[in-house]
């Protein structure tokens, strides 16, 4: 009974937090939509991000009040809000997103996710995502490109256009290289060479680096571990049944060689970037093993 009551209390408070702040956020979003001049729109962007950060901070307070979860955050002490970061993380659960909020909210610029294009049509949320400058992506499959070769490179153009708006303000861009949440079934289907990870995809990070490479001050290599338990779902977090989340952050310098090439057309550069990603993933797989062993 206690987990059920805890979960319901969390839902009520999180919903109240969202409903209270969605109004001011949408008003600023509408102002951003109608006001002329880039300076006015940038001011609105800062206002929207302030509301979003306030919302996220309230979510942290709610979890601290109602749940026993210990957020074991390592490596975020030197982060700054006036710098731009690329966050690369493994992905296992919807709990991963609150974990990033715990680690980065008001430590770095408010983070941006790449979203499916269809989400822009969701009432209210689509406008909020647009105001927060979340990039809306329309990715094309290999089969589609085989039938429509004239569309090759369009996804890169869309990514570059989406990232252009990030150049005026500090930004934290989040990229899940696996492209989906890890499960043992997906791992087996992929025949992944990693024990705790799916195969990484280098294309998305290549597109971000191609556009923002000179602006990004550092790469934040985030490793999320749920020690001593199965990977929890979001309800497990809400109902107070997630004892510990380890959020390990490694700050890496960004080698200019990683964004000074043509990923689409230069096979040598593409192989170089893919090897960089593969090495990150080999190191992350070993890091997960060490973190799990030390937590037991």
Tell me what you see in this structure:
The model has no long low-confidence stretch (mean pLDDT 87). With 296 residues, the protein is of the alpha/beta class. It has helices at residues 2-34, 38-66, 96-104, 125-131, 142-147, 154-164, 184-190, 203-212, 234-238, 267-295, and strands spanning 70-74, 85-89, 111-112, 115-116, 136-137, 172-176, 218-225, 244-252. The longest helix has 33 residues, at 2-34.
- N→C terminal distance: 28 Å
Number of H/I helices: 10
Mean pLDDT: 87
- The secondary-structure element order is HHEEHEEHEHHEHHEHEH
Main sheet strand line-up: 1-8-7-2-6-3
Q: Which properties best describe this structure?
A:
296 residues; alpha/beta; Glycerol-3-phosphate (1)-acyltransferase; six-stranded mixed beta sheet; two-stranded parallel sheet; 10 helices; 8 strands; 49% helix
Summarize the structure.
This protein has 296 residues and is an alpha/beta fold.
Topology:
Elements: H1 2-34, H2 38-66, E1 70-74, E2 85-89, H3 96-104, E3 111-112, E4 115-116, H4 125-131, E5 136-137, H5 142-147, H6 154-164, E6 172-176, H7 184-190, H8 203-212, E7 218-225, H9 234-238, E8 244-252, H10 267-295
Parallel strand pairs: 1-8, 2-6, 2-7, 3-6, 4-5
Antiparallel strand pairs: 7-8
């Amino acid at each position: 009974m206690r987990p059920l009551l805890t979960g319901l209390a969390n839902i009520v408070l999180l919903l109240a937090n969202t409903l209270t702040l969605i109004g001011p956020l949408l008003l600023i979003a509408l102002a951003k939509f109608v006001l002329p001049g880039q300076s006015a729109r940038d001011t609105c962007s800062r206002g929207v991000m302030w509301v979003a950060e306030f919302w996220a901070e309230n979510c942290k307070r709610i979890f601290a009040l109602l749940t026993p979860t210990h957020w074991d955050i390592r490596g975020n002490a030197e982060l700054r809000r006036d710098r731009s970061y690329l966050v690369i993380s493994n992905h296992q659960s919807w709990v991963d997103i609150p974990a990033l909020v715990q680690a980065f909210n008001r430590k770095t610029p408010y983070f941006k996710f790449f979203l499916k294009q269809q989400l822009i049509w969701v009432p209210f949320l689509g406008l909020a995502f647009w105001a927060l400058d979340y990039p809306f992506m329309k990715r094309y499959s290999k089969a589609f490109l085989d039938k429509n070769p004239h569309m090759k490179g369009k996804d890169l153009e869309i990514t570059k256009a989406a990232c252009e708006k990030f150049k005026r303000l500090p930004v934290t861009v989040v990229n899940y290289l696996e492209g989906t949440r890890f499960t043992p079934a997906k791992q087996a289907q992929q025949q992944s060479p990693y024990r705790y990870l799916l195969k990484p995809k280098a294309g998305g990070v290549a597109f971000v680096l191609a556009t923002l490479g000179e602006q990004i001050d550092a790469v934040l290599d985030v490793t999320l571990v749920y020690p001593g338990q199965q990977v929890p779902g979001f309800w497990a977090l809400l109902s107070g049944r997630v004892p510990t989340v380890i959020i390990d952050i490694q700050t890496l310098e960004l080698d200019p060689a990683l964004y000074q090439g043509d990923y689409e057309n230069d096979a040598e550069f593409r192989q170089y970037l893919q090897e960089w990603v593969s090495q990150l993933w080999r190191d992350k797989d070993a890091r997960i093993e060490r973190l799990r062993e030390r937590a037991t």
